[in-house]
């Protein structure tokens, strides 16, 4: 009986410790879900003039978001993939900022 209790306690302790230790993959996944602030002004990230018309901004965003779509990023080499995800987050954040600057509703 004591041996069974000892085994159950050992397994329970292992599961508890396993759940408390953060996984590198989970941390990276959580970082991707956080709001992202571009390192450059929105118009530089989107490669448009600062006084661009909304149609020009929207067209450029569509081009860039297609170029850096998740399906395409997944085909890249692993060392390039993280840089592409970072650039994609910058593009999305820049577009969000552009929408705010043009007094348009921001979509989640």
From TrEMBL:
- In terms of superkingdom, the source organism counts as Bacteria
Native species: Puniceicoccus vermicola
| UniProt name for this protein | J domain-containing protein
SUPFAM superfamilies xref list? Chaperone J-domain
* Organism lineage string: Bacteria, Pseudomonadati, Verrucomicrobiota, Opitutia, Puniceicoccales
């Amino acid at each position: 009986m004591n041996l069974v209790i000892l085994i159950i306690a050992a397994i329970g302790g292992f599961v508890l410790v396993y759940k408390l230790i953060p996984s590198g993959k989970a941390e990276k996944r959580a970082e991707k879900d956080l709001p992202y602030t571009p390192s450059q002004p929105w118009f530089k990230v989107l490669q448009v003039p600062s006084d661009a018309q909304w149609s020009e901004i929207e067209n450029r965003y569509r081009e860039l978001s297609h170029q850096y779509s998740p399906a395409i990023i997944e085909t890249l080499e692993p060392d390039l993939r993280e840089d592409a995800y970072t650039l994609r987050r910058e593009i999305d954040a820049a577009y969000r900022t552009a929408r705010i600057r043009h007094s348009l509703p921001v979509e989640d």
